[in-house]
Amino acid sequence: MAQVPPEALDALAREITERLEAVVPAGASPEAGITGVRSKLEALVNQPGGGLRDNVLIAAHAILSHVQDEIARDLKTGWPRPAGGVAGTRNRGEDLPWGEAEISSGMLRLWYGEKDNAALELPPISLQMLEGYGRV
Fold this sequence. Notes:
Blueprint: H1 6-21, H2 34-45, H3 52-75, E1 99-104, E2 107-114, E3 117-121, E4 125-126
Antiparallel strand pairs: 1-2, 2-3, 2-4
Helix pairs in contact: 1-2, 2-3
């Protein structure tokens, strides 16, 4: 797998950050800014071992989990609210929908909860910026 260059990682970080910033609830200020997202992408996308597709999914899961933890810390309650339910409390992590990701047809899909009944789904992201660096 060829190393994904900084400009491609920056483009992906911007896309993820824009989508996350659009859903951060009032009163929360997670370290989900572009710097935090970019550092996770850099550490995980270019790691040795798995292919680009697997590494992007690992990075996406890590980013979603980190943002969820930061927001729950700030709000002192679980986030996002489970589909059809009430938000958990800080001490009841089992009530929280897990951050999930998949890649299909060159698009990265990010959501919390069940695939077909997401508690929160972000708009899909084109992975065109990664073309030529491995199979996504």
